Amino acid sequence: MIQVDGVTKTFRSGRGTVRALRDATFSVDAVQFAAVIGKSGSGKSTLLNCLGGLEPPDSGTVRCFGTSLYSLNHHERSRFQRRHIGFIFQRGNLLSYLTVAENIGFPLSLNNITGNDQTRRIDELLDRTGLLAAARALPHELSGGETQRVAVARAIAHHPKILLADEPTANLDTATGRQVVRLMQDMGQTDQCTIIMVTHDLEVVEAAAPIIYLRDGRIHDYNNGGARV
Amino acid sequence: MTYGNIGFWARIAWLFLIRSGRSSAALSAMVVTAVAALIFLSALSVGVNDAMLRNTVGLFSGHISARALDADIRPKDLKTAGVRGVLKRIYLPGRVASGKVNRSLMLCGIDSARETALTAFQQKIITGRYPQTGQSELLLSRFLAKKLGVHKDSRLSLTLQGQVVPLNVTVSGIYQAGIDTLDRDLAFLPLTMLAKRETPWSAAVFLEKDINTGDIIEKYQQKWPGTQSSAAYRFESWEARMPDLRQLIDLETISMGIVIILVFAVVAIGIACSFVIFIIKNMREYGIMKAIGVTNREMSLLIMIKVAVMNGIACGIGLVIGAVAVWGVTRAGGIDLTAFTSHNRYFSVSGIIYPRLTAFSLLTPPAISFLFSLVAAIWPMALLVRKKTADIMRMV
To answer: Are B290 and A54 an interchain contact pair (Cβ–Cβ within 8 Å)?
Structure first.
């Protein structure tokens, strides 16, 4: 279970102080597929970063499966991330100097899954993403859809408990975007993974529960399969 | 503290470097050029030192001078491992007369064939030749010849110390060494003219390259104990005989060391700046890695390995290029700097410099380059470690 309790995050820039998150509180159960929606600048990405351990909040707590993320020191948090969290960004997800197979193998190596186990897992993911033929391709040789499919495979490779996706279909056409989301959902289900995805795609939103609607950094609406909070 | 699997990070660093081929090559080129150039310069510096030694020690005196050796010690007794050759010389006062001109002088008995083989002194004979074994001949300094008013083939009357009847000798040649001690009242004659004398003799000992004079002198002192205590009967190294040359060589070595350090300090700043640019260019990828869970320690290790591998290879290439350049120049006959050395007493024979590789000239530039490159990695490392992942992902 992911529990977010009273998370606040403020940024200071040349344009003044921006309160990106204000007292955000919600929870997502294990193996749920949650969508975070809201207008641009509403704090969606900041929320996802806080959930993924990338952005320490000013106040509040983020607990992932019983572990309070920001009570861990930097080193421990990195170790937690590599073991339990998979991240997919909107763009530029891949390490440009590694092939598709090497990109997928990267988190496996970090988690000491090596040798035949690693090869088997990479082959399985390449097969499931339909990228077997592109295993040795470098990222610049891939299309946008292929890139995001590799990103999904890499994010899920080490069987994380949580998959965080920040508008992974934003730069894709509708059909490709759907493919990528379906892939995420399938893989998430197979690997018993909790997915939290920032999206604007209404079709994705309809399939998600809970749906977290952010406005001006506040949780404006929280719809957990009909039960609104 | 754990860095996980160093082999894995080394592989990632390697893949990064070879798949960022152009950037890696451009960065490496700076190090390759600097290492090769400094190896050549260091070898040139060693070559200059060699030339000064060759011109001074190799002209006449040898690396070790021995004085007042007993007649029962033979030149071959002084020949030991590291000794290229030993020249026997006998010094004796005498008087020489030409017509009404009469002058005291120091005579030096030599074996002209062996002198020719081991010294460059014959290049200083401006007219004529060495006095030949078995002949009654004298090789005079130009100063002495002028004072006596003689020239090559002139006949002189020579009286050796302890002799009553003067000998008739012919001037076989006239020399000018360009060194005060040799250019005054000194004349050479064949050792055969002094054969019957039980005179203590002097030796000029010539060593192989890179042999320490102190080690050889120590051997001699063990063989002939007491040679140290007696001032008249001792071995003297060229360093003791010419402390100014020793200082000059040390000064040159230190200067080269400073040049190497300064050049690599500049190169290190260049490497650091380039790597920071390299990292900023790929900043998002480092952000992704952090998001995947790469720790700061692992990130630092990765940067360190990248810099170390890149510089290791660049240093290796630079070392080969530098060594080949030194070999090529030496094979081509060295660098003739006679125009710049003709008035220098340390270059009295030849101004040709043969760059020479030594452990110092070959290994110091790459070693310092490698060390500085690791120092240069600190800045880009700190830059990445300090940045929060979310900030990185926002900025690019």
So the answer is: yes
